[in-house]
Amino acid sequence: MSLQLFISVLFGILFLLIIVFRVLEPAYLLLFNKPFYIHWYPFSKKLKSSQRQILVNDFPFYSRLSSKRKAYFEHRVSEFIAKYEFIGKEVVITEQMKILIAGTYVMLTFGMRNYLVRLFNKIIIYPSSYFSTVNEAYHKGEFNPRMKAVVFSWEDFLLGHLTSSDNINLGLHEFSHVLHFHCLKSNDPSAIIFFDEFNEAVKYYSDPVLNNELTQKDYFRLYAYENQFEFLSVILEHFYETPRVFKREHPELYAHISRMINFKEEYLK
């Protein structure tokens, strides 16, 4: 077989696979409520040993993963750090900052295929709470779509990361806003599932009977009831920080959130 014929056959097979995939995945999505595949990295990237050690020491979610999933996690962290710019305001950007911030985002989106979004292109870090021109007030963090920036007070980000049982995690909170905005606009399989399950979950905010069920049990902090966006972010903080309590107190809502982000129970082991 000539090289030209081989290339033609190869492209023909690839084209056929793409067509079959585009036909099959929507059906798979309807049947199983998850994408056909999540992780596939022909040229997988690895972290440096010093970067990996930060995950080992300071990221329990990573430590609970299997060896195969740890490799997926590291690849995604590496891709995140390469894609987004880290900018320090009165603070020097360190490797720990990059790894923990990237790891938080990767943890939140680990069950989604298309995880790198265009809604932001930079992470801005202040040493502590900062004055925001958005509403002329001091903030601990924010997602600013106009500036395409996610902003953190490092002091508060680190406190949220290291305190794992108070259901307050600044990194998860702000990245949840990013994910919410992305899935409202995107039509990729993970975003479609996210949007459908969010519409079910948000009924616990908008429906008086379901909302009363939540407020009576008093599991979620009051900030969850500010609006739909804060409702989702606070719920995701609780989902990752005290998942077993969440599942016990509100099993149906927990199931919606689990499907929304394609979360695997085995990650908790």
Write a structural description:
The chain has 269 residues and is an alpha/beta fold. The protein has helices at 3-32, 49-58, 60-63, 67-83, 95-108, 154-162, 170-185, 189-201, 203-206, 208-217, 228-241, 243-249, 251-260, and strands at 85-88, 122-126, 130-132, 137-139, 141-144, 149-153. The mean pLDDT is 89. It has one domain (49-268). α5 packs across α7 (170-185) and α7 (170-185) crosses α11. β1 (85-88), α5 (95-108) and β2 (122-126) form a beta-alpha-beta unit. A 4-stranded mixed β-sheet has the order 1-2-6-5. A two-stranded antiparallel sheet has the order 3-4. This is Zinc-dependent peptidase.
Averaging pLDDT over every residue, what do you get? Answer: 89
Largest sheet: 4 strands, mixed
Amino- and carboxy-terminal Cα gap: 52 Å
**Poorly predicted sequence stretches spanning 5 or more consecutive residues:** none
Elements, N to C (H/E): HHHHEHEEEEEHHHHHHHH
How many DSSP E strands? 6
Instruction: Name the helicity range.
Output: 55-70%
Overall radius of gyration: 20 Å
Query: Strand order, biggest sheet?
Result: 1-2-6-5
- Global geometry: globular
Structural class: alpha/beta
Strand coverage percent: 5-15%
Number of domains: 1
Alpha plus pi helix count: 13
Transmembrane segments: 6-24
InterPro entries: MtfA_fam, MtfA_N
Pfam family, one: Peptidase_M90
Keywords: Membrane, Transmembrane, Transmembrane helix
